[in-house]
Backbone:
C-alpha cells in the first residue's frame, strides 16, 4: 500500500478524548496505566506511537551522534551549524510530546496551589505552595510520602517559591503573610529577608541569584527590595504604581532585572545604576495588567503574560522594537491562580495554560482547557497537551531543568507529565 501523503495545510492541533475511568484514586496514587494523549501536532495526519521520538528524528534527518559531535566541533570553530542542529533537536522534542501523559498527580492542599518550583539539581523533586501557606516538597521518583509544611491558613498564600541555589536543602518564599524568608525542609525559618509588619502590605514575588548572591522581592504596593544573601538590604524603592506581580533576574547577566506589575508595565533595570523609580532602562507598556515577565534561559528574550489574551516576546538586544505578539486566551479570574507562561529550559518554546474565552477571536465551541506550546521565535502554536481526566484550567506549567518532565498546577491538583515509557519505569 502506498504511504499516505502529509497534508499540505496546517491544521489546528486536535485532541481525541478517551472515556473517563469510573474508579476514584487516592491523591498520592500513581496512574495505573499509560493514558495515551492522541494529540496531533500541526500538519500531522497520524497518531504517534511510543516510538515517535525516534520516528521524528528519522523524518527530520537529525544527525547521528558522530555528526552531532562534528557539528559541535564546527560550532566551536565558529562555523554556523549550531542553529540548524538545535532546531532539529527541538522538532524531535515536539514530536515526543505526543507520548506525554500524566503519570502522577496529587491534591495535598485544602486550598488551591499558587506556586511551584523545581529543585535545581534533582530532576524528580519539586516544591509547591498553596493559598493557605502550606508547602509540599515532593520527590515523585520515590514512594516515600512527600514532606508537608503546614501554613497559617487564610492570609498565608505562597506567592513566590525558589530553592536556595547556595544550599539546596533550603528554599525562599514570599507570601501574603507579609514576609520573604528562607526556610529549611523541616519548616524552620533560617532568616527573614523582608517583613512588612502590617496586614495591608504583603510580598507577591521573588527571585534569587547564586552568582551575585542577591535576593529580590516585590510587594503589593509597588516596592521592590534588593538584599544580599546574608540578609543585608541594599535598597527598597517604589518602582511601580501598583502590585509587583513578578520579578526576574537575567540568568546570564544577573545585574539585569525585569519587574512586572498590574500597573500595565514591565520595567527593565540595571541593578548597578538604580537610583530611584525613574532610573529604569526601559518601560514596556501593556494593554492590561501583567502577571509575569520571564527571561529565556539564554537571557536573550523576555516573555510577558498579561491578564487577558496576549503573550509578548521581547528581544533583549532591541527593547525599542515591536515585540512578537501571541494572541492567547488566559483571562484573569479572582478565584483562579493567575496564569503565567514559562520557557522550556532547553528549547525556544513557550508553555502556557489555556482558559477558553468566548469573546476571544479564534474561540471555537467546546474548546478544551489545554496546555499550549508555542515557538518562541515565530509565535506559532506547535502542540497542545490535554488529559480528559484532568480537564480543569491549568494556571502554572514548568519543565524541570532536564526539560523532560512537566509539572502543572490545576486548582487543588499538582500534575506530573512525562513520556509514557519514562512514566512506566518510574
Residues:
Amino acid at each position: 500500500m502506498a504511504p499516505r501523503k502529509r497534508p499540505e495545510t496546517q491544521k489546528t492541533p486536535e485532541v481525541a478524548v478517551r472515556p473517563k475511568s469510573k474508579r476514584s484514586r487516592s491523591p498520592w496514587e500513581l496512574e495505573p496505566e499509560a493514558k495515551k494523549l492522541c494529540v496531533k501536532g500541526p500538519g500531522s495526519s497520524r497518531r504517534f506511537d511510543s516510538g515517535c521520538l525516534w520516528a521524528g528524528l528519522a523524518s527530520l534527518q537529525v544527525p547521528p551522534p558522530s555528526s552531532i559531535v562534528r557539528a559541535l566541533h564546527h560550532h566551536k570553530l565558529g562555523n554556523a551549524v549550531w542553529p540548524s542542529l538545535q532546531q532539529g533537536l527541538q522538532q524531535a522534542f515536539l514530536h515526543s510530546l505526543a507520548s506525554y501523559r500524566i503519570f502522577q498527580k496529587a491534591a495535598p492542599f485544602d486550598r488551591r496551589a499558587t506556586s511551584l518550583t523545581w529543585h535545581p539539581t534533582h530532576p524528580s523533586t519539586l516544591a509547591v505552595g498553596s493559598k493557605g501557606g502550606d508547602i509540599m516538597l515532593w520527590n515523585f521518583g520515590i514512594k516515600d510520602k512527600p514532606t508537608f509544611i503546614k501554613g497559617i491558613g487564610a492570609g498565608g498564600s505562597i506567592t513566590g517559591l525558589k530553592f536556595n541555589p547556595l544550599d539546596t536543602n533550603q528554599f525562599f518564599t514570599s507570601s501574603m503573610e507579609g514576609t520573604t524568608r528562607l526556610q529549611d525542609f523541616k519548616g524552620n525559618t533560617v532568616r527573614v529577608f523582608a517583613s512588612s509588619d502590617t496586614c495591608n502590605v504583603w510580598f507577591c514575588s521573588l527571585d534569587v541569584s547564586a552568582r551575585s548572591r542577591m535576593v529580590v522581592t516585590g510587594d503589593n504596593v509597588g516596592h521592590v527590595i534588593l538584599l544580599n544573601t546574608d540578609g543585608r538590604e541594599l535598597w527598597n524603592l517604589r518602582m511601580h504604581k501598583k502590585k509587583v506581580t513578578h520579578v526576574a533576574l537575567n540568568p546570564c547577566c544577573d545585574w539585569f532585572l525585569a519587574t512586572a506589575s498590574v500597573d500595565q508595565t514591565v520595567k527593565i533595570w540595571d541593578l548597578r545604576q538604580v537610583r530611584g523609580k525613574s532610573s529604569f532602562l526601559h518601560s514596556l507598556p501593556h494593554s492590561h495588567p501583567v502577571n509575569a515577565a520571564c527571561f529565556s534561559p539564554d537571557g536573550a528574550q523576555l516573555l510577558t503574560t498579561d491578564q487577558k489574551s496576549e503573550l509578548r516576546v521581547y528581544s533583549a538586544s532591541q527593547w525599542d522594537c515591536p515585540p512578537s505578539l501571541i494572541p492567547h486566551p488566559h483571562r484573569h479570574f479572582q478565584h483562579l491562580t493567575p496564569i503565567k507562561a514559562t520557557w522550556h529550559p532547553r528549547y525556544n518554546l513557550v508553555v502556557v495554560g489555556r482558559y477558553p474565552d468566548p469573546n476571544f477571536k479564534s474561540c471555537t465551541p467546546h474548546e478544551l482547557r489545554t496546555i499550549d506550546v508555542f515557538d518562541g521565535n515565530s509565535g506559532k502554536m506547535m502542540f497542545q497537551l490535554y488529559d480528559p481526566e484532568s480537564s480543569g484550567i491549568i494556571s502554572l506549567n514548568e519543565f524541570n531543568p532536564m526539560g523532560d518532565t512537566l509539572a502543572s498546577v490545576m486548582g487543588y491538583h499538582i500534575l506530573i507529565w512525562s513520556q509514557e515509557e519514562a512514566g512506566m519505569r518510574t
